[in-house]
Amino acid sequence: MIRNIEKRTVHIPGLGKKILESIIPVVEHESLLGDLDEIYISYRNERGPVLAIVWLWIQVLKFFFTFISDIIYRSAAMLKNYITVSIRNLRKNKFFSLINVTGLSAGIASCILILLYVQNELSYDSFHENADRIYRIANTIEMPGQPNAEMATTPHVVGPMFKDEFPEVVNYTRFSGYRSRRVVRYEDNVYNEGRFLFADSSLFNVFSFELVSGDERTALTAPNSVVISMEIAEKYFGDEEPLGKVLTVHSSDQFTVTGVIRNLPQNSYIRPDFIGSYSTLGLTTTGNTAMDLLSNMSYQTFCLLQNEEAEEPLRGKLSEFVARNMAPILDPLGASYEYHLQPLLDIHLYSDYQYELEATSDISYVYLFTGIGVLILMIACLNYMNLSTARSAKRAKEVGMRKVVGARRQHLIWQFFGESFVVVVISVIAGLLIVYIALPQFNSIAQKQLTLSFLSNPALLAGTAGLLLLITFIGGSYPALFLSAFRPVQVIKGVLQKGTKGSLIRIVLVSFQFTVTIALIAGTLIVYKQLDYLQNKRLGYSKDQIIWIRLRNSETRQNYEMVKERLLQHPEIIKTAASGNLPLGQSSDTIHHPGGKPENFVIHTTIHLVDEDFIDLYEMDIVKGRSFSKQFRTDRELGAIVNETAVKMYGWDDNPVGKDLEYYTGINSKNSKKVIGVVRDYHFRSLHEPISPLVMYMSMNFGGEDLRFNLISAKINSDNIPEIITYMENLWNEIDQEYPLEYGFVDDRYDSLYRSEERLGSLFSLFTAFAIMIGCLGLLGLASYTSEQRTKEIGIRKSLGATTPGIVNLLIREFIKLVIAANVVAWPLCYFLMKNWLQNFAYRTDMGIWIFVLSAVLALLVGLLTISYQSIKAALCNPVNSLRYE
Amino acid sequence: MDYLTRREELILLSIGNLKENAYLVSIREHLSEIMGQEWSVSTIHIPLRRLEKADYITSFYGEATAVRGGRRKKIYVLTEKGYKALGVNKSVNDKLWADFSDFEIIKG
Questions:
Q1: Do A441 and A565 fall within a single domain?
Q2: Closest partner residue to A32 among B43, B45, B61, by Cβ?
Q3: Distance, in angstroms, between B17 CA and closest chain A CA?
Q4: CA-based nearest residue in chain B for residue A8
Q5: How confident is the model at residue A472, as a pLDDT?
Q6: Range name among A63-77, A454-468, A723-737 with the lowest pLDDT average
Q7: Residue A448's pLDDT band (boundaries 50, 70, 90)?
Q8: A749, A776, A802 — which closes off a domain?
Q9: A146 falls in which pLDDT band (50, 70, 90)?
Q10: Cβ contact (<8 Å) for A37 and B68?
Q11: Residues of chain A found within 8 Å of residue B67, distances taken between Cβ atoms
Q12: Based on the domain organization, do A160 and A234 belong to the same domain?
């Protein structure tokens, strides 16, 4: 009989049977497979084997779907159970839950902020449809004996020439830089506008600037047309139709509004308010190709390539282009020249040339902040793990009981993950709330317009969901895997009560937290120290209490002496000086030929155009010879003062005073000056760059044009600045009816140079604060756990005569050991990273050992404060209470 | 008490009709015969599982036969709760049908 049955068991094909067996609950195997067998056999008899097989597979498939929906249903039910249990547990341990949630939510909040920040940094310009085909042409000029000039701007002929010569270049568009501010007027609305540039009409074909009104084919073709942003349209015209309106620029130039573009996002490298038509500039060429390709280098050229693959072949052709077209000028000078093809998408993070349209960022900051985010997240997760393991002794009994009543290990693993999930969900919600509240503040620090919008930002949604799962997994993994492995017998006997296995891990976790904390504190201190150094470094000139005003029209420029006199009539204005530039900021430069050197020895030198009071007003030191003076009437025409670096670079080993100095005013024309003095080196550029050669002239001719003083500096001796400004405004209204007064403070200008470092400093300290806070929370939890664990020990010690300080010492000693161990790792790590960062500066502060000591002491102090409350409380406790049982 | 779905009602009725011989195959055949269309195994199996869990039916194992590869049948019978549920269903149906005046039109 049995044999008979065995023979006939193989009715359903093997694979189908296997699948069914794996998806159907074991208890149903017998009946259900039997049922299927029965029907299968009757089908085979009635309709033949083929149809029967087909039928069977359809059944298998249907069971499969049923099985899946069944799993979802069942796991949802289990999840519900886990969540209930977790919430009960959270309620039972309010203190620990609070610490966990606060720590995690702070960690999550900083991670989301960093995510938004990094995402924004990486998203620059990607909104342009052709973004991956747009390249900017940048260039480097290398002259013998001087630093390379690396510029983001090229001559205006480069775009058209590239398009003609290279089939890879489909289109191009050029931008003039923002240059100086422009006064724009429409009826009664007058504003001083800084974001005014000129662009080719091809702008709309290359970039994705969206015109909301106007025709993109004609908007920028006619001279004196201007396209404005919606914001500007509203500012000047309110509700009126902007198209066809005429804006007056600088009181005489008339621009007709021919289009309105949608406001550009903050993550755009090109962000003009006004775009004038390129034809307005009326640029011409000399006909001499080499000359055209090397002069008037002040336009940003963007090329649209055929496709992404066109980049390599184009790159290959560039050096040949240089050799063919520019040799006549480059070769005699021994100079070399190179074009760079920069992808638009790389400009914001990788480009750092002179004359960028907007201050660019650096990819290393993206890495830095991502790193900090990961560290903070790790600290937060570790806290959670740490606290859960620390309390494992308490949970161990529960685990034991669950096992006794039949829970399998996987059930417990799921339970702990479920618990972790609940905590993390609550923390994510709290974290998002923190982000929501803190975002405006964060935006103003980071100079961004970040928003917390899940709908328009799938990456944010994915990131948050990812964080949720990651933290649930990492945070829950240790308790889940460690606690679930307990053997019920041992646990209930009390073998694992102490949770000894966890203590080593706790030590490692706490040391790690302190390593990160100390490194972050030290990093913040170094950033601030460098900023402070930059602010206070001896610049070689005084920058305090000086107001500059700009002379705008030729009349005031002609009469600058009168303006100086009038300003001095105010009792609080003690000195005035006229110049073509400030000690820091835009200035002209050209090739110089020092006297007594071979004809082809030339050096690119910065020129400062100053009057005889400038050096005195800025308190610059004359180290040799004399300063400009009214008494020497030839000074204006011939006098030159050079800086120490120039003397060195020119190779004037003997006394430079009295030497001849020639500067090129055009490609073949030179002017001659005589050196009358040497000024001590002063920093006329950012401290990122070393000091380069500089000359000071009282007058100069460039390209056939006499350059004039257009700035007046006024040294004031008062804190009553508003009163002085009012005086200046009144004076200004008298002498210039055309332009409003434009003024500023010299030290402001200096500060703005280091804004990105300052931003870094603020963000750094913000995240450091987060990290410290999270670390302390963890410590607090741990300290209260340890003192709770050792209540009895403390009670016994006290009853045997231990003093309160002695017990506090006992509780704190271990912790101090950990902090000291953390220093061993934190110091070299931080030293290495910050040394790298400081390399960005030509002039940098030193990282004294005291910074590291201070950070360690700070971390220790904060940590001690955190744990001392718990420890002292435990030490003060009456032993009667702790030793009494029931 | 929850109302039964149409499919649950049909299955419960079949179990009642089949008396002691109600197992998956016979229920399926019974229904297919009456309704003139084939039912897949899982469309019966899943409601059976649910009905059993909700105590409308109970089950025991019957004899093993050779045609089933030596496996036993799982035979279902109605519980008291099952009978009650069917009764409620019927009375609701009856009331609704009694008031349904266009019945003749459908028949015709």
A1: no
A2: B45
A3: 19
A4: B69
A5: 86
A6: A63-77
A7: confident
A8: A749
A9: low
A10: yes
A11: 8, 37-38, 41
A12: yes
How many domains does chain A contain in total? 4
Instruction: Judge if A441 and A332 occupy the same domain.
Output: no
Q: How far is CA A389 from CA A401, A479, A481, A536, A782, in A?
A: 18, 6, 11, 50, 10
Q: In angstroms, how far is CA A219 from the centroid of its own chain?
A: 35
Reported as a single tens digit per residue, the pLDDT across A754-776 is: 777 778 788 888 888 888 888 88
Chain A residues near residue B50 by CB distance under 8 angstroms: none
Q: For residue A341, which of A312, A306, A298 has the smallest C-alpha distance? A: A312
ipTM entry: 0.77
SS3 A782: helix
How do the domains of chain B map onto residue ranges? 6-107
Q: Are residues A283 and A168 in the same domain?
A: yes
Q: What is the pLDDT, as a whole number, of residue A174?
A: 92
Kindly determine whether residue B40 and residue A62, on different chains, have CB atoms separated by under 8 Å: yes
Q: Which of A6, A31, A63 lies closest to B73 in CB terms?
A: A31
Mutate to test the interface with B, among A19, A30, A40 (most CBs of B within 10 A): A30
pLDDT exceeds 90 at position A809? no
Distance from CA of A2 to the nearest CA of B (A): 8
Decide if B68 and A62 are in contact by the 8 Å CB cutoff. Answer: no
User: Does the pLDDT of residue A396 top 80, yes or no?
Assistant: no
Closest Cα in chain B, distance from residue A53 (Å): 14
Residue A393 and residue A507 in one domain: yes
Report yes or no: A174 and A299 within 8 Å, Cβ to Cβ. yes
* Contact across the interface for A34 and B69, Cβ inside 8 Å: yes
Q: Specify the pTM.
A: 0.70
Q: What is the mean pLDDT of residues A343-363?
A: 84
With an 8 Å Cβ cutoff, are A6 and B41 in contact? no
Residues A717 and A702 in one domain: yes
**A9: distance to nearest CA of chain B, Å?**
4
- Residue A81's pLDDT is what? 75
What distances in angstroms separate CA A92 from CA A88, A95, A96, A387, A423, one per listed residue? 6, 9, 9, 15, 14
Q: Would you place residue A179 in the very low, low, confident or very high pLDDT band (cuts 50, 70, 90)?
A: low
Q: Which of A350, A382, A410 is the last residue of a domain?
A: A350
Is the Cβ pair B69, A59 closer than 8 Å? no
How far is residue A229's CA from residue A214's CA, in Å, rounded to a whole number? 12
What are A's interface residues with B at a Cβ cutoff of 8 A? 4-6, 8-11, 28, 30-39, 41, 58-59, 62-63, 66
SS (H, E, C) A462-516: HHHHHHHHHHHHHHHHHHHHHHCCCCHHHHHHCCCCCCHHHHHHHHHHHHHHHHH
Same domain, A397 and A518: yes
The pLDDT, as a whole number, for residue A636 is 86
pLDDT, residue A1, reads: 38
Assess if residue A104 is contained within a domain: no
CA nearest to A7 within chain B: B69
Q: Which residues on chain A are in Cβ contact (under 8 Å) with B49?
A: 28
> Per mean pLDDT, which of A49-53, A487-491, B83-87 is the most reliable?
B83-87
Q: How is domain B6-107 classified at the CATH fold level? A: Arc Repressor Mutant, subunit A (1.10.10)
Cross-strand partners of A641 = A677, A696
Q: Which chain A residues touch B52 with a CB distance below 8 Å? A: none
Q: Which residue has the higher pLDDT, A184 or A501?
A: A184
Q: Which domain holds residue A616?
A: 546-749
- Regarding whether A702 and A627 lie in a shared domain, the answer is yes
- Can you spell out the DSSP letters for A827-870? HHHHHHHHHHHHTT-SS-----HHHHHHHHHHHHHHHHHHHHHH
pLDDT recorded at residue A751: 67
How many interchain CB pairs under 8 A, A with B?
73
Instruction: Answer whether residue A608 is part of any domain.
Output: yes
Q: Average pLDDT of B30-51?
A: 86
CA distance linking residue A713 with residue A699, whole number of Å: 17
